[in-house]
Amino acid sequence: MKVPWHLGKLRSLASEKEADAILISRPSNIFYATGFKGGSRLVVPAEGEPAILVGGVDLTAAQERFSKAPEVVRVEHVRLGEKLDDRTMKLLKEMGIRKLGFDELPIKTYSRLAKEFGRGNLADLSGPIWDLRKSKDELEKELVREACRMAVKGMEAASELMEPGRTELEIVGEIEEALRKAGSEEHPFNIIVASGPNSALPHARASGRELKKGDLVVVDLGATCSGYVSDMTRTFVVGKPEGWQEEIYRIVREAQEKAIMALRAGLKASEVDRVARSVIEEAGYGPYFVHGLGHGLGIEVHEPPRLAPGFEEVLGANYTVTVEPGIYLPGRGGVRIEDTVLVFEDGCEVLTEFPYGLKP
Amino acid sequence: MKVPWHLGKLRSLASEKEADAILISRPSNIFYATGFKGGSRLVVPAEGEPAILVGGVDLTAAQERFSKAPEVVRVEHVRLGEKLDDRTMKLLKEMGIRKLGFDELPIKTYSRLAKEFGRGNLADLSGPIWDLRKSKDELEKELVREACRMAVKGMEAASELMEPGRTELEIVGEIEEALRKAGSEEHPFNIIVASGPNSALPHARASGRELKKGDLVVVDLGATCSGYVSDMTRTFVVGKPEGWQEEIYRIVREAQEKAIMALRAGLKASEVDRVARSVIEEAGYGPYFVHGLGHGLGIEVHEPPRLAPGFEEVLGANYTVTVEPGIYLPGRGGVRIEDTVLVFEDGCEVLTEFPYGLKP
């Protein structure tokens, strides 16, 4: 399976920001740059050979990966007992770096770099790196697409288990097995199966609670394909739905559908949120839609941009984002419907294709 | 199920460090303090009422949790569109904070606080907070113990699946189902099933590879009970073991056994590592034991202290740590054996009780 390779983009970013190099620490940024899961830090100079600092635990895997990489990356073995910060300083000096961009650092490391380089020669490039990651290239789109296909297999398994007496955790176990069978290499987040009153908690944690007739059940799951993830939610009912359940389901689905119909490059993130939120507000449930409409995703399950009030950023083509309105009635139950979608110039495509409805 | 409550310890830490308050952002520190999973930031003043900043997504759960908490914590709702940093500044001003401790912050937030308070009035207390977390109280020990019992159920399931033709990912799926049945509320890390040459990669990721006769198979898994985790590894063989496999297994097990026999409060972390490493070095496999002997664990699966060369910290009673030597022969295969243990004044106890041996 292919993996991402974006060293060129980071090198260009260094040049553009007039930095001699970028020091990368966030694991997902190292993976974005090199397709390698592991390693402690990566130094990407504007010119010359990048170097990755790797502990013994990742050394064999790193040597294997970089022996087949499209361009040379020096693998630097950080030996047991060596301090990562000492080694980082040494490497930056050897490379002759004077102006340094970075993505994220512990305060202690930042302070040490500030002493060494001068605060004015350090630049926080976390934002610009996120900007690069937002727009997915062809390979990334294919991997997210495949991760969505895997997630659908998990949702199919879930939909067949909406029976009284099963516990939330038991259903999570069955979903996980289905996802692994589908080839998911990692669960991007702790799967949510939230039944009855638990379904009114957007970030509920699955428990030993048994499903009962009349429960709403929110199922929120995702999959990972070659490091890229998917995220989707459906809400089911155990037995026959009651009127209030059908009502909030209908409203949430209408909000989602309208947002998906509106979503395209050139809109502000907050505008897409507004489309869905208006539907829910007009139906009188505004106070019960307690979170933003969605978020970007790719290597991580929560990436910029946020589709939420106050986020005025303009969406671009090839962004992958979630669209997930919800209504949560404390003590009673909640409905959330979520899809992963790919944004185009003139619209968007739902990648997590699975039927809607409390009884799909 | 009971959850941790350590606000008192943090309040004392604030006093001791002459800080008016500690600003806590790391999710596991918020959980350590309050037993609440969620929330964006927590402010613990040396005197007076703590406050937790909570988005809409966690609001109902937070209100529920803190209405039953042993002491008053003000739940501050961060509304959609409000910036967390703005709200944090406002809250700190309202509380009259002048000297502030913190655990971790994005550089941007740190710089803003530095402007507001003066760099000299900020103190990085991440180390002292880790120090508090290292030593487990009675409840924490019971939860880790229970998480270990759950992990053993997962390992039992794994041990029955060492047959040619099964894929690594399929076995991971079965393990996850067993863990969920045992009540594990979250997988603390992506479970490793690494077979054949993959077993030589300490941080291997499970793949679609089918098990073959003669493979070594490293299985590394854990469970979570009320927010506290366990971590264990066994190595199995498919079919009959070869001589070299038995040899490295015997050496790794001897290294582990000797380290466990030696482990007690008052030893330096590096000294325990040395006990195990000497066994492996004397057998001629020193270069193939490429990582430290172990690590602390509790709310997170990797917590201080590290049991590794260069870590001179003295171990204390009631620490929970892993003991996990390994030998990895690139291209051929590897063996790792890992237990979670509880450190006493005069010894330690293995909490992940499961037979040893390539064919247990």
Structural commentary:
2 copies of one chain form a homodimer. Chain A is an alpha+beta fold and 360 residues long. In chain A, 36% of the residues lie in helices and 20% in strands. Chain A has helices at 7-16, 27-34, 56-67, 84-94, 107-117, 126-134, 138-159, 168-181, 243-262, 269-282, and strands at residues 21-24, 41-45, 51-55, 74-78, 100-102, 122-124, 192-195, 216-221, 224-225, 228-229, 232-237, 294-296, 303-307, 320-323, 326-329, 333-336, 339-343, 348-350. In chain A, a hairpin with a 5-residue loop joins strand 2 (41-45) and strand 3. The longest helix of chain A is centred in the middle third of the chain and has 22 residues, at 138-159. At the A-B interface, helix 3, helix 5 and helix 8 of A face helix 3, helix 5 and helix 8 of B.
Summarize the helices and strands and which ones pair or pack.
Two copies of one chain form a homodimer.
Chain A: H1 7-16, E1 21-24, H2 27-34, E2 41-45, E3 51-55, H3 56-67, E4 74-78, H4 84-94, E5 100-102, H5 107-117, E6 122-124, H6 126-134, H7 138-159, H8 168-181, E7 192-195, E8 216-221, E9 224-225, E10 228-229, E11 232-237, H9 243-262, H10 269-282, E12 294-296, E13 303-307, E14 320-323, E15 326-329, E16 333-336, E17 339-343, E18 348-350
Parallel strand pairs in A: 1-5, 3-4, 5-6
Antiparallel strand pairs in A: 1-2, 2-3, 7-8, 8-11, 9-10, 12-13, 14-17, 15-16, 17-18
Helix pairs in contact in A: 7-8, 9-10
Compressed to H and E, one letter per element, the order of chain A equals HEHEEHEHEHEHHHEEEEEHHEEEEEEE
Name the strands of the widest sheet of chain A in spatial order.
Answer: 4-3-2-1-5-6
Unreliable spans of chain A are none
Q: What do the pLDDT scores of chain A average to?
A: 97
Structural class of chain A: alpha+beta
Query: So what's the oligomer here?
Result: homodimer
Q: What global shape of chain A is seen?
A: elongated
Please bin the fraction of helical residues of chain A: 25-40%
> Based on DSSP secondary structure assignment, what is the total number of beta strands of chain A?
18
Terminal-residue CA separation of chain A: 33 Å
| Largest interface (CB < 8 Å) | A-B, 56 and 56 residues
Radius of gyration of chain A over alpha carbons?
A: 23 Å
Fraction in beta strands of chain A:
15-25%
Number of H- or I-type helical stretches of chain A: 10
The description of the largest β-sheet of chain A is: 6 strands, mixed
